[in-house]
Write a structure and sequence with these properties.
Distance between the termini: 24 Å
Number of helices: 2
Helix content: under 10%
Strand order of the largest sheet: 1-5-4-3-2
Largest sheet: 5 strands, antiparallel
Radius of gyration: 19 Å
Shape: globular
Structural class: mainly beta
Number of strands: 25
Length: 378
């Protein structure tokens, strides 16, 4: 993220800043404003797949760039290749923006939409919100009321803990200029937990497990996976690569907080565990030693992240970024990302297999890369 647009600090905006604490509803009607032809830019996508292979993607847009006019849209597909216009949107009132959303299919089949809200570009507090779609495989979707979880920003998917609990990696940006002094807030990178077994959103409460800090962080975008030995491995974006931390007590305390030795061009990456047990990473290959958002590539690890195999380049172009991934019940891997948010304005999708990642090439008739599934302005 670059060039956040702030609102002017005036007596009026000071009075209105707490509007960002109000959960915006998920809209399902009167969505003409959010159609492709009316969007001037778009990016930062997420993807989820239901048990019966209904596909959902979400991303944000609105206004001229990243700022007060931002809204989140959700689209749907029956095959992963032909996508609807928006079927839902989150668009807060006034100068409040909705951004950095995440789609996730919970173990019980419910579709969860998480997003962040902030007054203006970044108000220093932000907040993570969520709504539950209880029937994602039906035509008429039922979304719960929206709730606020905590301060901060969460972009990446939760994971399931040892007891079946939801574990959310999130943070409150530490070094990003903000419009308002919001007091002494907990600005660490954090892990929150929730018992997701509640039938309704009102039955789900979130609690802080623990957190940590690391020097030089900015837009953190943390992700957490569980190692084979039961420990937790948190990875996060840094301006000069990727940072890491480990926890042996389920996220209550963290140690070995350091640079991970994994290259990155100051951009979002993806890491997650596949059904096979392997770890999938989607990141950028360095180009001539320079930090560019190019050569978006998939790797696999069979030894819990100690080493990485394969080298499947998904998109070699510059200005490709922000991958997210989901796996269907047959083991197909779907990777979504954006390309040229303000010029080409495209959301793209790849469908690949683990074997193709290891081989470093696409060879199945059913696989594809660089498929445009949404283009703003058309």
């Amino acid at each position: 993220m670059v060039g956040l647009q702030q609102v002017p600090v005036t007596n009026e905006t000071l009075r209105q800043k707490d509007l960002a604490l109000v959960p915006a509803a998920v809209r399902t009607a009167d969505l003409g404003k959010y159609r492709r032809k009316n969007r001037k830019w778009q990016g930062i996508p997420s993807i989820a797949i239901t048990e019966c292979k209904i596909f959902y993607c979400a991303f944000y847009s609105g206004g001229e760039g990243e700022g007060p006019d931002n809204y989140v849209v959700v689209e749907r597909s029956a095959d992963g290749q032909h996508w609807s216009e928006p079927i839902a949107a989150v668009d807060p009132e006034g100068y409040v923006r909705a951004f950095d959303m995440c789609l996730w299919t919970a173990p019980d089949g419910r579709l969860i939409l998480f997003w962040s809200q902030s007054f203006g570009g970044f108000d220093g507090r932000a907040g993570v919100f969520m709504s539950i779609c209880h029937n994602p495989e039906e035509e008429r979707l039922r979304w719960s009321r929206s709730v606020r979880i905590t301060d901060g920003v969460m972009l990446n998917k939760p994971m399931i803990g040892k007891q079946g609990e939801w574990l959310l990696a999130l943070s409150l940006w530490n070094n990003v200029p903000y419009a308002f002094d919001q007091g002494d807030l907990d600005r660490r990178i954090k892990l929150c937990e929730a018992d997701g077994s509640g039938k309704h959103v009102k039955d789900i409460s979130f609690h802080l497990r623990g957190g940590f800090d690391i020097e030089g962080r900015y837009y953190d975008e943390p992700m957490v996976v569980q190692k084979i030995d039961g420990s937790l491995w948190m990875l996060l974006r840094l301006p000069d690569g990727i940072g890491e931390a480990f926890s042996c007590d389920e996220g209550r305390s963290w140690n070995n907080i350091r640079r991970a030795g994994i290259w990155g061009p100051d951009s979002r990456f993806y890491i997650g565990r596949l059904k096979s047990g392997r770890l999938l990473m989607v990141n950028h290959l360095p180009e001539d030693g320079k930090a560019k958002r190019s050569n978006l590539t998939a790797w696999l690890s069979q030894d819990d992240g100690m080493s990485w195999s394969g080298n499947l380049i998904l998109d070699e172009r510059e200005d490709v970024s922000y991958p997210d991934a989901a796996e269907d019940k047959e083991g197909n891997i779907y990777i979504i990302y954006d390309y040229s948010r303000f010029n080409c304005k495209e959301i793209l999708l790849c469908r690949i297999s683990e074997e193709e990642i290891l081989a470093g090439k696409i060879y199945r008739d059913t696989s594809f890369t660089k498929q445009v599934i949404d283009k703003a302005g058309e």
